[in-house]
Known about the structure:
Elements: H1 22-27, E1 32-36, E2 39-44, H2 48-57, E3 59-63, E4 69-73, H3 77-84, E5 96-99, E6 102-103, E7 109-111, E8 114-119, E9 122-126, H4 132-143, E10 148-151, E11 154-160, H5 164-172, E12 184-189, E13 192-197, E14 206-212, H6 214-228, E15 234-236, H7 241-246, H8 282-291, E16 295-302, E17 315-319, E18 322-333, E19 338-346, E20 355-360, E21 363-370
Parallel strand pairs: 3-15
Antiparallel strand pairs: 1-2, 3-11, 4-9, 4-10, 5-8, 6-7, 8-9, 11-14, 12-13, 13-14, 16-19, 16-21, 17-18, 17-20, 18-19, 20-21
Amino acid sequence: xxxxxxxxxxxxxxxxxxxxxxxxxxxxxxxxxxxxxxxxxxxxxxxxxxxxxxxxxxxxxxxxxxxxxxxxxxxxxxxxxxxxxxxxxxxxxxxxxxxxxxxxxxxxxxxxxxxxxxxxxxxxxxxxxxxxxxxxxxxxxxxxxxxxxxxxxxxxxxxxxxxxxxxxxxxxxxxxxxxxxxxxxxxxxxxxxxxxxxxxxxxxxxxxxxxxxxxxxxxxxxxxxxxxxxxxxxxxxxxxxxxxxxxxxxxxxxxxxxxxxxxxxxxxxxxxxxxxxxxxxxxxxxxxxxxxxxxxxxxxxxxxxxxxxxxxxxxxxxxxxxxxxxxxxxxxxxxxxxxxxxxxxxxxxxxxxxxxxxxxxxxxxxxxxxxxxxxxxxxxxxx
Length: 383
């Protein structure tokens, strides 16, 4: 760890919310929290290496309440949501969801959420770390759409790993056997209402349980899953950063910022420029697609010794001792036995095999541009 980042205590206070599962995370021994979308987010409970292997070999449960839920409904809900998003909403059926972008008029990313179509004219936007609710309400007000927009009392709980399917089937029944990736299922359990999705943030097989009435039922669901998971070696964990990196999954506000467009950060697949209807940022993104980009987020391997933890801040990418880019996320991958990361660099530095110099905690280190996702057979699922 860089000397300027010394261990410090987390102070709990009402300005940052505790989740409906907070009592459970404390009982499970959460040792560190970060803040995600105005919620305290459990960062790890035990040795992060043990949590990493639990993601890969067993099954884990992660409190992701910070994935706050914006609901859009009303007579103009379809047209309005289609105008907000970079995907073609006509291709998203009821009980289906898609990963996509919300962009501003310049084509820069406001958020990279998952949008679920709950009913014909009801959509849930599961947002990443930004105040996207304010953006959505502002767009609706400015354009006078006939829609209702609110934030739901819904708290997602991730169940991820190779044993996630047998665990979920043991609790919710065999119907989940056939739930496709990026699809949803509404269900109840012991008077708890929820929507289950075949999604996640780990690159492993898994589900997310979107618990409704979460302030009332949060601990009931947490304890239910904890008890049901015992035969499957279920562990409450943080988000296992190295596994996210291996899968090539970006993190908003870290790997993606409001200054980036989808093509710069490898999210061009989430943009449907061919859709007939207009969307915010469409003209700007058409121009970007035509002219090309000047920089790009690439995968890198770097250093000789396994790094400890992750980068506490963006690290400079250097050329002739001057910064030309930044390392956005970095960590040691136990399975690859390499330090890996993402770096935003000029387009002429993006070819596979390009050598780079990064300033790793104040010390110059050699890096090389590599393919993503990192390593053979370490692929992520995406719609």
